[in-house]
Amino acid sequence: MNQDGIVGGKGRAGGVRRWWRAVNDRLAPERFGIVVTMGSLVASMALYLATPGVHTPGSDGAYSWLYARSLVFDGDIDFANDYRLCGDRFAVGIDRGTGHPDNIFYPGPALFWAPLLLVARAFLPGDPDGTCGPPWSTFALGIAPFLLAVTAYSAYRLLRRRFADGIAALAVALLVFGGPAMRVASVLPSYSHVHDAACVTVFLLAAVRAIEGPSHPLRWAWVVLALAAAVLHRISNAAFASVPVAVALVAHRSHPRRLLPALVATAGGLAVGLGTMGVIYRYLYGSPLVFTHGRYFIDFGQAHPWLMLLDREEGLFFHFPVVWLAVLGLPFGLRDRNRAPLLLPLLGIAGLEWWLCAAALDWSPARRLTNLTPLFALLAAYPLDAVRRWFGQASRAVTALGLAAAVPAVVYGVGYAWGVPRGMVPSERPLTQAELYGGAARGFWALVDDTVGGVALWPAERLFRARYGLPGSRLGEAAFPRWYVRDFRSLEFGPRGLFLVDPAAQRLARGLVPVEGGMRPTELDPSLVFAAQWREATHLAVVATVTEPIFLRVGLRPPLGRTHWCGDARELLPGQGPLVLEVPRGAFASGINEVRFELSPASLRALTLRAVTFDDRTPLRPAFE
Question: To the nearest whole percent, how much of the chain has pLDDT over 90?
């Protein structure tokens, strides 16, 4: 009997070993991809759990949360009681004549949150009226790290169709950890971006796999579901439907009938996604054809694609410089004819997304491009693969490893030397590691800020300095639209001018020095550089004091082109009020502007500029009708 037991045990052990061997054989070719996937899940989940403040839906995410909350607890998408319970911070809950309050944000995340809330109702006690935040939201928003892992693994599987395990995993790791995806999945989990990226990446992978094996209906079902889900996150994601069509056209050009599944699946996904959005919009707004943000939020004629990339508030290249790898990969990718059917439509979609986001009134949040993570990773893999081939010789690899190992030592040594005398690294007392090494890193980057400027933005900052005569490091401040702002819903003005007692405004001045109450010119043609968020100005006013009569001419100069003068020189007298001038048509636009002054030589010390304010007196239709 004992012998039988031992034999049986060996049999079970052998079965386990065979099972483990089969699993290992299956996973071994993807070992680095699995490591990256699990690493992204663990890192983002640890950050999420360690940051309780993000468990309550905030800002835009609070409105996306209301879709899930209303569906689960009220069985509808009428947000009247939701706004009473959870608040309406942005005052978007207006009734456009349908009897149902507005919600301008997308319902896509509710696809993931609503099922979790249904599960939570089974074991979370409490009044449903208290479901605007934790513990309900803690549980539901916790899916964001898992969606990041889905994004990472799907992107990796997409890259494996062209690159080896290590290169594919490295490219995905760099773009997932160093791009916007990690941030939105861990500390902005109520925003829609990681959910959006997961749907888009799964759609791309499912489409490629379905075209490789068109006889599998389940693969096409994934294409339909993923595309529909992506559209529910952002309607512009409908453009991704062009990818499987383009890939199938090339793959099956000699068998046209095989195109039918791709056409049917993409049409089905679009029908489900756009149809659902149409039903929601008809219910909320009375028409399926409506732009929820109103007529003033997007203006394609005044898009700012370069500011979106270079802005220090949340510009893509400044906050996520690893994306430069994707730019370096563009020439390699365009020469890869085998991947052209996939890459070319993706590049077209990226251009569309880039311009669309840059045309928004608040153009800076590069996190809106999180859904381009698979494209960025695919492009980044090309230069990484080229480097791998170049390092075929062992001596080159050893040299590269030595240089990489030296970088932290250089950063520490230089940063420590720069930081101690400037108070960035404490001295003459026991230090924590955070104080010592963190302070040294802070000192190093302070040195770079003070001497080189933004590393990822260096060419742009040199151009800014040449154009405006200001230090290149002030490009970020000049591009930050805090001076002339208007609410695109209510059309009420916020800040509407530069007040020259503000140190931030003073840093954007050339040929002016701070004095009590404002700034005094030191040149005959001083100027102010600033970014406007609102797109039109019909008048400007110069608030100044003079000790003797002077003549002043004021003009506006765009980043490219000539100065538009606001009329002829006007005389300023002691005790006179603000000088109000009409702005010529076409002289003003959102983005970076320059206000120029011309004054007589005798008046340099007699003039103190106190403010320059702007106004738009154009009669405007309401944002929503």
Answer: 63
The pLDDT of residue 365: 81
Rounded CA-CA distance 76/1 in Å is 65
Three-state DSSP state, 297: coil
Which residues are within 8 A (CB) of 404 and not within 5 positions of it... i.e. 6 or more apart? none
Q: pLDDT tens digit string along 291-333? A: 888 889 999 989 999 999 988 888 899 889 999 999 999 999 9
From residue 190, alpha-carbon distances to 58, 195, 226, 288, 542 in Å are 7, 9, 20, 26, 43
Q: Would you tell me how many other CB atoms lie within 10 Å of the CB of residue 360?
A: 18
CA distances to 364, 527, 603 from 531, rounded to whole Å, are: 12, 14, 28
Contact 246, 348 (CB under 8 A): no
422/416 Cα distance (integer angstroms) = 10
Closest CA to 171 of 182, 160, 180, 185: 160
- Rounded to whole angstroms, the Cα distance separating 601 from 380 reads 56
Token pair of 26, please? 């299956």
Please write the tens of the pLDDT for every residue from 496-553: 999 999 999 999 999 999 999 999 999 999 999 999 999 999 999 999 999 988 999 9
CB 549 within 8 A of CB 571: yes
β-bridge partners, 612: 498, 542
The 10s digit of each residue's pLDDT in 333-348 is: 999 999 999 999 999 9
Size (the chain), residues: 625
3-state SS, one letter per residue, for 1-50: CHHHHHHHHHHHHHHHHHHHHHHHHHHHHHHHHHHHHHHHHHHHHHHHHC
Residues 228-274 have pLDDT tens digits of 999 999 999 999 999 999 999 998 888 888 889 899 999 999 999 99
Hunting for tokens 């689960």 — which residue is that?
A: 72
3-state secondary structure of 185: helix
| Tokens read off for 55 | 């468990």
Containing H/E element for 314? none
Burial of 122 (0-12, 13-18, 19+ CB in 10 A): exposed
pLDDT computed for residue 314 by the predictor:
83
Half-sphere exposure of 91 (CA within 13 A, CB side): 6
Listed residue (28, 341, 332, 55) closest to 186, CA to CA? 55
DSSP state of 520: E
Residues 6+ away with beta carbon under 8 Å from 249: 259, 341
CA 259 to chain centre: 35
The pLDDT, as a whole number, for residue 9 is 47
Helices (H), 421-512: 433, 439-451, 458-468, 475-478, 503-506
| Helix or strand run (H / E) with residue 555 | strand 550-557
CA pair distance 305, 308, nearest whole angstrom = 5
**Cross-strand pairs, 113:** none
